[in-house]
Amino acid sequence: MIVSMKPPYEITNTILKLISSISEKIGEVNANYLNRPSPQLRKQNKLKTIHSSLQIEGNTLTLEQITAIIENKRVIGPKKDVIEVINAIDIYDKLNELSPTSEKAFRKAHNILMKGLIDKPGKYRTQSVGIVKETKVEHLASPYKNVPFLMKDLFDYLKKTDDPNLVKSCVFHYEMEFIHPFIDGNGRMGRIWQTLILMEKYPVFEFLPFETLISKNQKEYYNALSISDKLGNSTAFIEFILKQINVSLKELLSQNYRNLSMIERIEYFMSSRKEDFTRKDYMEVFKGISTSTASRDLKKGIELGLFMKTGAKNKTKYKIR
Known about the structure:
The chain is mainly alpha-helical. The protein folds into two domains: 243 residues, Orthogonal Bundle (Fic-like fold); 59 residues, Arc Repressor Mutant, subunit A, CATH 1.10.10.
């Protein structure tokens, strides 16, 4: 019988300092409207994320070749590498449709990611596996019969614990790698699911390619996994990943302070609003603009067929079409 328990890790001073630093930077990101970047930056970051994540797993295609595949152009390269890119594009396009706390969604994502690459994608493994580095077995994964119970426990941890999302995302990433639930694609799934857990609270992580930093520090990434394996807890891995996130946010802030145009303001507002709104609601998002600027923006939105207007004067309301 397997008893459900919380995965082992410690919240160290380093982790607390990193959470504080990351939280401050996320506040700054939100204040500068970088939590939902421009379409151009969004596309660039998506490309970098896909390229970096697959590069970690040995994919040989360049950023230019991945761009060509996204644009439906013919690319010459190993068939396996091309399929990996097509699948990765598909899964990153569907991220917003997946619930981070759903084990069913997790297996569906693996099915999309590994389609055409392995037998029975989306199914947990039914054989024992070991992770071999050079000539020695680095890690012997949990017995395959335990995988369904261990993954259920891990999703229960996601749903029920009060830990910060930043910590939970790292713990899930490490524990999933340790369990090694699939015959292949575990590394990619760990990074995708961490992104998804973070996105639930912080939209910026949909577009923040911290995987680029992991690919640049690949040796340290595997070293953090190895240290955590030896110590029997994910503390070292949490510290490593939080450092990468902190640096990634710092780079985002240093390069991309945004002075939004009228159209960019309208696009930004539409990306986060679903219900009816007033001019006052619009100005709550863009605190630095005047009432006349807000009125011009809303008038433009109506002219472009993006908003519908009802009522007059102080009773005026708008709705996104």
